[in-house]
Structures are given as structure tokens and as C-alpha cells.
Design brief:
The chain has 162 residues and is an alpha/beta fold. It has four helices and eleven strands; from the N terminus they run ββαβαββαβαβββββ. A hairpin with a 5-residue loop joins strand 10 and strand 11. The chain is globular and about 40 Å long. The two termini are 14 Å apart. The structure holds the ligand CCc1nc(N)nc(N)c1OCCCOc1ncccc1N1CCC(C(F)(F)F)CC1. Ligand VYG binds next to strand 1, helix 1, helix 2 and strand 6.
């Protein structure tokens, strides 16, 4: 069974999305996402797949797995799984990165042992929030608060559990 790591960026209150988009742009987060998931397997929901800009669909140099309950769905460059368990069977790398969205984070949370969270000091309206990080998790690393070139304060936090 591959290690299940989840990665997301959240604003205040855990907001991660609004109407199937990310309601901010943080170049430093995109770089972090690229570095951590490079060469790995990314697992996402069909809505997240649809929300990717064309040039990033599929995410290059990564196995892309889309979890969907639709038996007829297909996507160019995507492997299709109908459950978290099947996604893990299809994964070809030792770590799989769950990259969204809200529903998929919730479904994979019980299987996850690592969270890479970008926290933004930003108040923004949203309709989707990150999963609750309960006391089973410990902070393995947390950066200082950094001011982005887009004038948003952010930090990177790594959570782990065994
Ligand atoms: C970066 C956004 C992001 N951040 C963290 N920390 N965790 C994530 N789970 C995540 O969502 C990845 C899937 C959604 O992604 C996008 N949704 C809308 C527009 C653009 C994107 N990006 C742009 C950058 C691109 C690159 F490959 F360059 F990183 C990937 C697609």
C-alpha cells in the first residue's frame, strides 16, 4: 500500500475553494506543489480534473489518477478509479499525493499519514473547506510566515502521524 500524502492550500477558516476554483493565486505555493509532487502520483476528483487549466491536464511528469463514481468517465492522460482503494491499487509510486478537492480529501483522510498544508493569511469567501486536522496529527515542520510577491502572507506546515 503506497503512503498517502495530502496536499492543499487554505485561506483563513480552512477555505480551499470557491465554485470549483481556487480563489487566489500564490506563485510560491504553485512552486511548492510542483516540487513536492514532481515525479509522483497525483490523485484527484473529477471536478478538480475539470478545473485544471488545459496546459496542466494531465499534470505533466506525474501519473494522474482521477477518482469518480461515473463508470463511463474517461480523461486523456488520466487513469480512472471508482474508489480510494482502487486508486491506491493503480498507483505506481511509493507515495500518492491527494490533490483535491474537498470530497476527495475527506474520503482519503483515514488513509493519510502526511499533510502538506500551505496556510494563507487571507480572508476569502469559499464553499469548500479543508478536512479537520484532529489531535492524531502532529506538526513535523512549520515555516515562518513569509510575505509573497503578491503581498499575501503564507507559511508551509507539514503534519505527520503514524
Ligand atoms: C497549485 C494549487 C495547489 N496547491 C497546493 N498546495 N495543493 C494543491 N492540491 C493544489 O491544487 C492542485 C490542483 C489544482 O491546481 C490548479 N487549480 C486551478 C488553477 C491552477 C492549478 N494549478 C496551477 C499550478 C500547476 C503546477 F503544476 F504548476 F503546479 C498545477 C495546477
Amino acid at each position: 500500500m503506497p503512503e498517502v500524502a495530502m496536499i492543499w492550500a487554505q485561506a483563513r477558516g480552512g477555505v480551499i475553494g470557491s465554485q470549483n476554483t481556487i480563489p487566489w493565486r500564490l506563485p510560491e505555493d504553485q512552486l511548492r506543489f510542483k516540487e513536492l509532487t514532481a515525479g509522483g502520483t497525483v490523485v484527484m476528483g473529477r471536478r478538480t480534473w475539470d478545473s485544471l487549466p488545459e496546459r496542466f491536464r494531465p499534470l505533466p511528469k506525474r501519473q494522474n489518477i482521477v477518482v469518480t463514481r461515473s463508470a463511463s468517465w474517461s480523461g486523456v492522460g488520466a487513469d480512472v478509479a471508482d474508489s480510494p482503494a482502487e486508486a491506491l491499487v493503480l498507483a505506481t509510486t511509493s507515495v500518492v499525493w491527494i490533490i483535491g478537492g474537498g470530497e476527495v480529501y475527506a474520503r482519503f483522510l483515514p488513509l493519510a499519514t502526511r499533510l502538506e498544508v500551505t496556510e494563507l493569511d487571507l480572508q476569502v469567501a469559499g464553499d469548500t473547506v479543508a478536512p479537520l486536522i484532529d489531535e492524531s496529527w502532529r506538526i513535523a515542520q512549520a515555516s515562518e510566515w513569509i510575505l509573497s510577491r503578491t503581498d499575501i502572507r503564507y507559511r508551509f506546515v507539514t503534519y505527520e502521524r503514524s
